[in-house]
Amino acid sequence: MTGSRIRITLRKSLIGQKPKTRATVRGLGLRKLHASVEHSDTPDIRGMVHRVRHLVEVEEA
Question: What's the rounded Cα separation, in Å, for the pair 61 and 58?
Answer without folding.
Answer: 9
